[in-house]
Amino acid sequence: MSAIGQIALHVTDADRAEAFYLDFAAGVTFALRLAGEQDIPALSALIPLSVRSLQAAHYSTAQMDAALGPVFGVDRELIRDGTYFVVEHGRVLAGCGGWSRRRSLFGGDAGRAAAEAELLDPVHDPARIRAFFVHPDYARRGIGRRIMHACEQAIADAQFRSIELVATLAGEPLYAAFSYDAVERYELPLAGGLMLPVVRMAKRLQGPGLDQANPTRLPAGMSGFRRRLRP
Ligand SMILES: CC(C)(COP(=O)(O)OP(=O)(O)OC[C@H]1O[C@@H](n2cnc3c(N)ncnc32)[C@H](O)[C@@H]1OP(=O)(O)O)[C@@H](O)C(=O)NCCC(=O)NCCS
Fold this sequence. Notes:
alpha+beta, Aminopeptidase, 5 helices, 9 strands, 21% helix
């Protein structure tokens, strides 16, 4: 049984939507909400911290250095689209991750080609899972899982029928735990002739909605998160 318990509180108004949940084991409350522009400095700090710690078993320092920026970076488009979540513990940004209805499969938005921003067709194209990074102090405490549930719920609500992502080797077990299949292993070219091994993974959604067995489904009305306006 998961150590994370659903509390479910809730939402004051649509622009301030937050879901709170309690880690019963640690007696800690986390808040899940949509990211806003005001989060960009904290996200910019979290991403390298997460990468250098949680990917160190899989990639060399040189690979991580080269990938930070072009592959691992803040994607402001996800924030603007209202498809990027953060989890906070008090004032600490404990994790982030999101989904996308645009073609791009990974990377920050800097220098992105226009074709990568093209909107996908929910009937024919898979939605994307994008840019999950958890603070090393909060790893393996269900934060990635919680954000995945929120993303899959929102993707199902947007009428997509399948989901695709490009996983790091560090991320692969999280997505495998959500029944994503590895469909292709390949290497992304990085500066300096380096290569980054990654895995393309895919999942078909069941029926009209999400995985009905999902025990942490968001309360009614919560999946249509909109950008929170308060600073
Ligand atoms: C991948 C990442 C987001 C996972 O976040 P997390 O909050 O630690 O994951 P969770 O605690 O929600 O794990 C959920 C499940 O995923 C699997 N999982 C996650 N991390 C795992 C690991 N290091 N080893 C084995 N299984 C793992 C387990 O099945 C886990 O369930 P369990 O803890 O009950 O066994 C985090 O490791 C991370 O930020 N890595 C660095 C950045 C990165 O590579 N991101 C992926 C981009 S594609």
